[in-house]
Design a protein that fits this description.
Layout: E1 3-8, E2 16-22, E3 25-32, E4 35-40, E5 54-58, E6 61-65, E7 72-74, E8 90-91, E9 93-96, E10 99-103, H1 121-124, E11 136-141, H2 154-170, E12 173-178, H3 190-193, H4 203-207, H5 213-223, E13 226-232, H6 240-248, H7 250-259, E14 268-274, H8 280-294, E15 303-306, H9 318-323, H10 326-348, H11 369-383
Parallel strand pairs: 11-12, 11-13, 13-14, 14-15
Antiparallel strand pairs: 1-10, 2-3, 3-4, 4-8, 5-6, 6-7, 9-10
Bound molecules: FE2/S2 (inorganic) cluster (FES).
FE2/S2 (inorganic) cluster (FES) is lined by residues 43, 45-48, 66, 68-71.
Length: 384
């Protein structure tokens, strides 16, 4: 076995870690518990840099926690925590004349354990449920009305009317998702760690297959032909619950930026926006900007708005006015008519390859490999 010098012993004081290179492979060195060990730097999950993870005493031993999504590896032998069977590659370490040497090849090979259950396989493989003849209309209600104190929601009521109409007039299959009924985590900013840390399916979904956003991903990406998003106006914007969902849709949009992979094609979206005062147009613009970046297509007149106007501080009359509004009854129908018409047109000639005039990762101003390594070490110094 050949050994390669990778650094001086003084470069790796006790309780520290470092990323070094063996040939063309990055290896994470750890000096904890009076022992120097070396494991493959690329996490078995999505290649997060293990050498930059926090090292902690847990399960009765020292583990490094991947900085991207939290997979854990025992630093003395690369093993997974109790109950898991992943094995990270380990290198042999020698210390000679104040130098650290590593075996040229791993002495323990990496092995990712087979995970029998694949609860996200349909998302992973993009098993679309739409067909050339389907008319699947999905409504997403983003109001956060308190279920224990039922009250009338104008946005949700208009959405219900729209879905009823789609069903009776067009025989559409309809589904309503009430975001408030789903338990889902906020986006945890994996993209901010590294572009490869934001994955499809979402990293949070992988960690927790029961995360409520999986229902949204399945319905929106795999099932729907037409999407209707309904939101109340809150301080001039869509609801906070809407934004919580939108942030978790980063993983759909990032597939375009990172992999030139458009998950949503040949789908139509429109919006229902209701509020006490105003800002309908600003909310509509915000929603349209986001949904076009996901790949949705809009019909003309793609939103229905309702507000009482800036000076109407008589919210006690809002619901009564809404309920007897002929405009709402007509508007929801025409919104659906336009969506169905466009969906049918699209199905006659669906787009196969969708162009995406968005910035792409490979077009970003480049960073030389050495700069990258310096930066990586800087971040590492910050940890240790
Ligand atoms: S890349 Fe390491 S946990 Fe995801």
């Amino acid at each position: 076995m050949n050994y390669m010098e990778v650094c001086s012993l003084s470069d790796l004081p006790a309780q520290s870690q470092k990323i070094v290179t063996v040939g063309s492979v990055k290896v994470a060195l750890f000096h904890y518990n009076n022992q120097i060990t070396a494991m493959g730097n690329a996490c078995l999950h999505k290649a997060g840099p293990l050498g930059m993870g926090n090292v902690d005493f847990r399960y009765g031993d020292w583990y490094v926690v991947c900085p991207w999504h939290g997979w854990e590896y025992r630093i003395k032998d690369g093993g997974a925590p109790p109950g898991s069977h992943d094995q990270q590659a380990m290198y042999e370490v020698k210390v000679e004349d104040g130098k650290i040497l590593l075996s040229e090849k791993p002495v323990v090979k990496a092995k990712r354990a087979e995970h029998a259950e694949k609860p996200l396989l349909d998302l992973e493989k993009l098993m679309y449920q739409t067909t050339p003849d389907s008319l699947n209309v999905l409504g997403i209600s983003t109001t956060n009305l308190n279920e224990s104190l039922p009250r009338f929601s104008t946005s949700e009521n208009a959405l219900e009317k729209a879905l009823d109409y789609a069903k009776t007039e067009y025989g559409a299959a309809t589904r309503m998702i009430k975001l408030r009924d789903l338990k889902f985590r906020h986006c945890e900013g994996f993209y901010s760690q590294h572009e490869n840390a934001c994955t499809w399916p979402c990293s949070i979904s992988e960690m927790d297959p029961h995360d409520g956003m999986n229902e949204v991903y399945r319905a929106m990406v795999l099932w729907a032909d037409v999407l209707l998003v309904a939101s109340p106006i809150r301080w001039g914007n869509a609801s906070s619950l809407y934004f919580k969902m939108a942030e978790r849709l980063n993983c759909v949009q990032n597939q375009i930026t990172l992999k030139n992979r458009v998950l949503i094609k040949n789908k139509v979206a429109s919006f229902i926006i209701t509020g006490g005062q105003d800002n309908i147009q600003q909310v509509a613009a915000q929603l349209m900007c986001f949904y076009t970046d996901l790949g949705f297509t809009f019909p003309p007149f793609s939103f229905l708005g309702w507000s009482r106007g800036w000076t109407a501080e008589d919210m006690d009359r809002n619901i009564a006015q809404f309920q007897k509004s002929k405009y709402i009854d007509r508007g929801v129908k025409e919104l659906v008519d336009n969506c169905v018409c466009l969906s049918r047109q699209i199905k006659e000639k669906p787009v196969v390859k969708m162009n995406t005039p968005l910035p792409k990762i490979e077009e970003a101003p480049g960073m030389a490999e050495d700069d990258y390594r310096d930066e990586e070490q800087m971040r590492l110094d910050h940890i240790s």
